[in-house]
Design brief:
- It is globular, with a radius of gyration of 20 Å.
- Helix content is about 40%, strand content about 15%.
- By secondary structure, the chain is of the alpha+beta class.
- Strands 2-9-4-7-10-11 form a six-stranded antiparallel β-sheet, covered by helices on one side.
- The protein has eleven helices and eleven strands.
- The protein starts with 5 loop residues before the first strand and ends in a 5-residue tail after the last helix.
- It has two domains: about 160 residues, Jelly Rolls (Sandwich); about 110 residues, Arc Repressor Mutant, subunit A.
- Strand 5 and strand 6 form a beta hairpin.
């Protein structure tokens, strides 16, 4: 049942900071893949195409800008796109372009957060994509230090942009790169990731954090931006998505193996988050194997 994901060896050499491809094409023909490098992908005039980032599947609009972190599987597919003039700019840059110590500086907090979140894929708003379109297109006409400086400036502006959307669930690739600067939150996430298949109550994790339930709920949301229940659900859905791709277990078996005690509830939550049923999700991933 496991879908094959191509491991791409990008043309980016160790002697270059980044590489850029700009092209107009009639369809998407590159298979689902992953690679070590970061990738910023700008796509225009491809309404109806299908984007897959980790376990997130979505039909795209006529303009989009997405940042994909290292080793996160991704791909764009023609699907319902009727355009014969798809315009795409792909920028790939090394993981060490920004040194970890450099990113820890106070002035780079926004950039650091974006780099961390890219491990799940980031979709920027259409407004942001429109605003940066001229600079992204013109980047191909710059060279040397000016080109590196402009790329960093573009990334910095993206890091401060609003209305971004995180695409893939954190547990899909079994990675959670974000640091919440709280040992209690980190301990809670570690516990949820190890016990997602079991019943986990608020009282249980609150006790783990040595806090009352009410205090823990406020504390957790203030540090993560989402509730404990939503976080646990996200973790379970990420593992469920992986099982749908990599195993032949039934949807019901996967639901119970991921801590959902009701198949109807699992289907409802899955469809609300993924915009498709578990069966449709599995069929989509099975279908893309023909490209590999």
């Amino acid at each position: 049942m496991s879908a094959t994901v191509m491991r791409e060896i990008t043309p980016l050499t160790q002697n270059d900071c980044f590489t850029l491809f700009s092209r107009t094409k009639s369809n998407f023909d590159f298979p689902l893949h992953s690679h070590e490098e970061f990738e910023l992908n700008f796509i225009r005039n491809a309404k109806g195409a299908k984007r897959i980032i980790g376990d997130h599947i979505e039909e795209i609009d006529d303009l989009e800008l997405v940042l994909v972190g290292p080793n996160l599987q991704h791909g764009w597919f023609t699907h319902n796109c009727a355009s014969r003039e798809i315009f795409e700019v792909t920028i790939q840059f090394h993981k060490d372009l920004f040194d970890e110590k450099f990113l820890r500086r106070n002035q780079l907090s926004f950039l650091r957060n974006m780099i961390e979140k890219s491990s799940r894929g980031i979709l920027f708003s259409k407004e942001t994509a429109k605003r940066l379109t001229p600079r992204i297109i013109q980047l191909n006409h710059k060279d040397g230090f000016d080109s590196v400086l402009e790329l960093m400036s573009i990334l910095n502006e993206l890091s401060a942009s609003s209305k971004t959307r995180i695409l893939s669930d954190s547990s899909f690739n079994n990675t959670e790169s974000h640091t919440y600067s709280s040992a209690r939150v980190e301990k809670t996430y570690d516990y949820m990731n190890k016990n997602f298949d079991k019943v986990i109550g608020l009282n249980e994790v609150a006790r783990l954090a040595n806090m009352s339930e009410a205090s823990f709920s406020r504390f957790f949301k203030s540090h993560t931006g989402i509730t404990f229940i939503d976080s646990l659900t996200e973790i379970r859905l990420g593992h469920a998505s992986r099982m749908l791709i990599d195993t032949s277990l039934s949807v019901a078996e996967i639901a119970y193996n991921c801590g959902f005690n009701n198949i109807s509830n699992f289907n409802r939550i899955f469809k609300k988050k993924k915009k498709c049923t578990p069966k449709e999700f599995r069929e989509t991933y099975s279908g893309i194997r023909v490209f590999v």
